[in-house]
Amino acid sequence: MKAILPIIALMAAPAMIAQAYGAESAGVLQGLLPTDGSMQTGVAVAPQHTQELAPLHQQFISKLQALEPEKQKAVLENYDPLTLIAYNADIWPDKAEYEKYKAEWKKVKLVATQNVAVGLKNSGNNRWTVLSLAENPATKRTAPLTISALSYDSGKNIWISNNGELTATEYSATDDHVFGAQIGHEWKLEKEDSLSKMTENIRVTKRTDGKAIFIVYSFTEVSAINPNLIIAQGGYALMIPTRTAQVNMAAPGSR
What we know:
The protein is α+β, with helices and mostly antiparallel strands. Helix content is 16%, strand content 40%.
């Protein structure tokens, strides 16, 4: 059922009180999100690069495709579309061209696309329910995010979804990431059968400057017969500020 309370009104109301299960810890999520049944406001964000980066990135793609298969594989194994690619002399024989690419990459801005609110509620036995709302910018109506269908087990440090258990690894990124330098954890589930291959991820990190928490969720299912055929796909990135109570969607800014 869709919730229809505006997020601002919701956050002005008294915090919802979780059931009393004592001072149970939320594990690695403790201190990152509210754990008393209330929610912290934030925004869904998308990176926005400069127009000048587009032709430079196309040149990178063209030169990558021209490399020998072994060198292509080496580059792609470490490639993250959200992180500045490291200098590679096979792609940029003239390092000045790479510095031009890097300078444009560093101008990336995060654009707010939707107001959100996220928190945790103790369900007992180390299980935590995700409370979330996202506001439709056009109608101002709210509905839960898909991560509310997942739960977190702080004792085992796993997320549980309808697809199974997402297991954890530590995660870190430098300032070359579009969200800035950050540390935290990433949980991942991979399943494959004769029909499809499915991957589900959730990442929760905190910027090293303490300014924001990031929650990144993604889900992809592709055909096992034709890997280029996407059956289902979705995802989003949430930024929960730690120093400001509200982020203005009309004011996108730098990282």
